[in-house]
Amino acid sequence: MKVNGMVKDNADNTGPRLPWAGKRVDTTKVETELAHLWRMSADNMRTSQNVNVRTSVLNLVICAPDLASAHRASMLIRDLSSTHIARVILLILDPDGLPSGISTWVTLRSFPIISDIMRHSFEQITVMTTGTAIHEADRVITGLLKSDLPVYVWWLHDLPSDRSIIQRISDISSRVIVDSSSFARPAENIRALSSLIQTLPNSALSDLNWARTAPWRELIAQFFDVNEYRPYLAGVTNISIEHAVNDPGQQAPSEHAIYANPIQALLLAAWLKTRLGWKLSTAYQPHETTPASGSYGWQLQRPSGPLTGRLPGIGKTGRLGVAETGDISLRPRVQPDSAIGSVCLVRLDSVRDAKRASFSINRTDDQHVSTLVELDQGARPPHTVNVASSQNESKLLQAELEIMGRDLLYEETLHEVFDLLE
């Protein structure tokens, strides 16, 4: 229903019942009801002698495509108590829901910090928008934010197909967080993110999946921290990356089921491309590209002249005599014990002064990888390193909530992924 052009709150008792979301209220009465809940909480604290910690650090807006995703997010934020969030707004965007309207629930969340004697509390507001009301979501959210605090927006799963909704909600944020590992349409959403960066000059963008590549980037850099191996960096001619996919025969049906998601592999490929100074050229076309399965391949132009160190902690690595080509290939690998999209293999093949070398990181099980250096004179003993295929989502999110500035390296890498996919 609309009143004077605005969608009216659906404040009656019809519609879904969400016990986990608290009490259903009219949007105009949210602050009144929260004040009442705080007074009740204070009375309970005096009775039980507990200390209730109420701190105001940030607003967290979680944008979910459905009730199931919102409920899961509501459970996950139990592990974020040390971040001291002031207010969580769970925004459900359901463009196909009928009738069009806005429904609101409020509750206080309280979790122990050290023991049950000291508890952290924050406010949670759940807002469900259906039908055409989703276009009013940014106005509703703006009216519910705690003033003078930064706003972090976390998008769950794929970004909405209506890019104007993403833009309007992101415009009110200090930081936009996504998790590209949950994208069912990886290439489409990467293009949307690359475009979004350019339209958000005052907001940072980050991806939990980029954080998952950090151990792999560190291990690759560590190869070339060794003086003996450092010259081979300039001679890298081939990069092979494999990522875990689900066995189609064992795939369980799900609304957000994903068979292949190569974004971690794409991010690593783009990062290596920039660190090595490789360039796309119209003379070298993509080959063997099958996006549906996560297979990609490119032939690129390697630089000539001095190649200064672009990996962390690496200095000059020598000189390439002439410009040559280099190959990057991404391939799926059925790895039942690993998270879909997680990197399974990175291999760099190099030729330097007529000597060959390869540097590889290969997943051996869900928790470990093996690093191996192979030279003409023989292979060096492999090393086993603890790198889990799946990382705790709440810990990754908490780390992002503690970052204020922009991650320029991620933004540069994201644009490179966009270029590779074009």
SSE class = alpha/beta
Shape: elongated
CATH architecture of the largest domain, by name, is: 2-Layer Sandwich
CATH topology description of the largest domain = Dihydrodipicolinate Reductase, domain 2
C-alpha Rg, in Å? 25 Å
CA distance, first residue to last residue: 43 Å
Kindly report the average pLDDT value: 84
List keywords for this structure.
422 residues; alpha/beta; Dihydrodipicolinate Reductase, domain 2; 8-stranded mixed β-sheet; 26% helix; 30% strand
What would you note in describing this structure?
This protein has 422 residues and is an alpha/beta fold. It has two domains: 2-173, no CATH class; 212-391 and 408-421, Dihydrodipicolinate Reductase, domain 2, CATH 3.30.360. It has ten helices and 21 strands. The chain has helices spanning 30-48, 67-76, 137-144, 163-171, 186-198, 208-212, 214-223, 263-276, 393-401, 408-421; strands at residues 2-3, 6-7, 23-25, 51-53, 59-64, 87-94, 101-112, 118-130, 151-155, 175-178, 204-207, 236-245, 296-301, 305-306, 319-320, 325-334, 343-352, 355-363, 368-375, 378-379, 383-386. Strands 3, 4, 5, 6, 7, 8, 9, 10 and 11 form a nine-stranded mixed sheet that branches. Strands 12, 13, 16, 17, 18, 19, 20 and 21 form an eight-stranded mixed sheet that branches. The chain has a two-stranded antiparallel sheet with strand order 1-2. A hairpin with a 2-residue loop joins strand 17 (343-352) and strand 18 (355-363). Helix 5 crosses helix 10 and helix 8 packs across helix 10 (408-421). Mean pLDDT is 84; it is low at 1-11, 49-53 and 305-322.
